[in-house]
Amino acid sequence: MQSILKNGRYLLLSAGVLMWLLCAWVQVQPNPGSKTSSMSTTTETRAEKAHAEVYVRATPEQNSSAASSDTIRNAQGVLVDGESGLALGENMFLVKAQCTICHSSKLILQSQFDRDKWIERIRWMQRTQKLWDLGETEKPILDYLVEHYGPNKTGFDGRRLPLPAQTWYKL
Question: Could you state a single Gene Ontology molecular function term (predicted)?
Fold first, then answer.
């Protein structure tokens, strides 16, 4: 072992392995303020903690501040949140807090469901993905989703919109 370390070829590798072992050891040590170790936390407990944290973050004060400094306009000219891409609305922060803990906001952005289909999706997530009971926040979440990500008002024929006219110049 000393010949390997003296050689210097594997010095960096052995230092990395030792650092990894130290980090792994620290990870399994109990938290000073808690009776359980960080490795013994169950999935259900983590989900409950996340739900409690979400409910605290999604306060009415956040909902009322619709236009903040990190808002942008998307390609359709709708004012959206710069971080998630969700359309700004009364309950956008509630939807952002409840939904993006588990999945990307892109799943919401690409969907255009009516109220019944959104309810069906929520029930599926509760049944199979361990989504917690939304309680009194379910109605405002559904109202936001149907308002901003409901079915298209215009019929979609499967084709993209025509490209705008381009002005070309001669070479």
Answer: electron transfer activity
